[in-house]
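Input record, target 12 of the design panel.
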């Protein structure tokens, strides 16, 4: 019922309003009324929380739709913009769809059997202090591995395995050198739980990665959010939880595709040549 109401409301308002701002305001108003009515109707039953959650979902759907409408290209079917002419809603915003990345082969992952509970602590730059290795590297391969319990022959642990070519070292407490290949292994759920591909590492793409060594194996520190990624033309895409890396020339990236629909934060973009120098300085504050 909620999906039908939402679609009807969308069609109604979409047909009535030509102004994007008027469309946003009207949709927010109508959906707020709809969600309040939903909660009020069910507040005296055991379904209160269920319908309250559905009402909240409607508002989330509205936000996604409003963003979509605000970013629609009126010249649908026209030639996509080139990299040095990124479309901007203003002078400080670019569209994710206009960024250029190397072609990547999709990866089919197994279903994770691990049940993970509890909350994940938020990311902070202080996590750099836990790194044994910080690199810029290209993902050469992504595979998956099962570990069986010796006694029961049941799967005891599942992992995602990244083979990475190390293009540059920012810090190393290991014997690795630039040009070496390293194998990184994280629990499978750190990959399968990321519904938006913006957070997942992809084959043939280049990232800046913080790495920790545990039990003679290496893993990515905090794999639950997008890693810093380098575009094909040398720009740097990164989440807003790197405040030290945000400067006056930093642009906000509008996610106008499905890649980051589940990522709650903002993505930023730097095109200046000083980014890696700033990142290296940040690394030095934790490893000097």
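The sequence produced for target 12 reads:
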């Amino acid at each position: 019922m909620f999906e039908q109401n939402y679609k009807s409301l969308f069609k109604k308002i979409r047909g009535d309003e030509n102004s994007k701002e008027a469309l946003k305001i009207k949709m927010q108003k109508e959906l707020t009324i709809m969600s309040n009515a939903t909660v009020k109707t069910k507040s005296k039953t055991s379904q209160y929380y269920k319908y309250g959650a559905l009402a909240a979902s409607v508002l989330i759907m509205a936000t996604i739709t409003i963003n979509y409408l605000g970013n629609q290209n009126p010249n649908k079917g026209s030639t996509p913009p080139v990299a040095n002419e990124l479309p901007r809603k203003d002078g400080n915003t670019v569209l994710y769809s206009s960024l250029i990345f190397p072609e990547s082969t999709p990866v089919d992952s197994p279903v994770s059997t691990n049940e993970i509970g509890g909350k994940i602590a938020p990311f902070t730059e202080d996590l750099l202090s836990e790194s044994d290795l910080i690199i810029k590297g290209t993902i050469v391969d992504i595979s998956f591995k099962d570990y069986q319990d010796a006694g029961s022959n049941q799967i005891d642990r599942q992992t995602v395995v990244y083979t990475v070519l190390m293009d540059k070292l920012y810090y190393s407490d290991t014997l690795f050198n630039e040009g070496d290949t390293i194998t990184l292994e994280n629990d499978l759920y750190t990959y399968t739980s990321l519904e938006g591909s913006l957070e997942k590492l992809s084959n043939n793409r280049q990232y800046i990665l913080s790495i920790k060594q545990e039990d003679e194996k290496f893993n990515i520190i905090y794999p639950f959010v997008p890693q810093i990624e380098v575009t094909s033309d040398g720009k740097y895409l990164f989440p807003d939880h790197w405040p030290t890396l945000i400067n006056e020339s930093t642009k906000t990236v509008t996610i106008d595709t499905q890649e980051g629909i589940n990522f709650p934060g903002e993505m930023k973009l730097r095109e200046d040549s000083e980014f890696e120098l700033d990142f290296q300085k940040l690394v030095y504050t934790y490893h000097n």
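Confidence is low (pLDDT under 50) at residues 1-20, 31-89.
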